[in-house]
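Subject — a protein and its fold
Encoding — discrete vocabulary of local shapes:
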Amino acid sequence: MNKSSNTKESKVCLSLPALTPDEIKKEREKMGLSQFSFSVKYGIPINTLRAWEQGTRMPRAKNKNLLLKLFTT
């Protein structure tokens, strides 16, 4: 990914509502899914999901959009 793509993605991410690690975990649990089941069902590597829920990484724009769609329907 080049520098302009990173800048564009950063701007998109800033315009999306924030998702805290606790919200991600709570919403996943509300769906009745384990980390493993969620990662398989939605194609998100389990280590990535764990990092989001622990707050060591934040979802990029594409995944943040996916999470927001899943959590608001």
